[in-house]
Amino acid sequence: MAATLLSVMVIAAFALGGGGMWLIARRRETKKGLLMLVAALVMLGNVLVWTI
C-alpha cells in the first residue's frame, strides 16, 4: 500500500510540475504556475523522506 501511495505521489508531482511549467510558458498565470512547481517539489521531497 505504501509503495502505491508513493508512486501516485510521484506521478502527481510530475503532473503538477508539467502543468506549472505550461502555465509559466504560456504566460497565463505565472503565480499559479510557480505555486504548482513549489507543490511538486514539496511532494517529491516528501517521497524522498519517506523512502529513506
Describe the protein in words:
With 52 residues, this protein is mainly alpha-helical. It contains two helices and no strands. Helix 1 packs antiparallel against helix 2. The chain is elongated and about 40 Å long. The chain starts with a helix and ends with a helix. The model has no long low-confidence stretch (mean pLDDT 94).
SSE diagram, text form:
Layout: H1 2-25, H2 30-51
Helix pairs in contact: 1-2
Largest sheet: none
Helical stretch tally: 2
Question: What is the H/E string?
Answer: HH
Ends distance: 17 Å
Structural class comes to mainly alpha
β content, as a range? Answer: under 5%
Structure described in brief:
With 52 residues, the protein is an all-alpha fold.
Can you tag this structure with a few keywords?
52 residues; mainly alpha
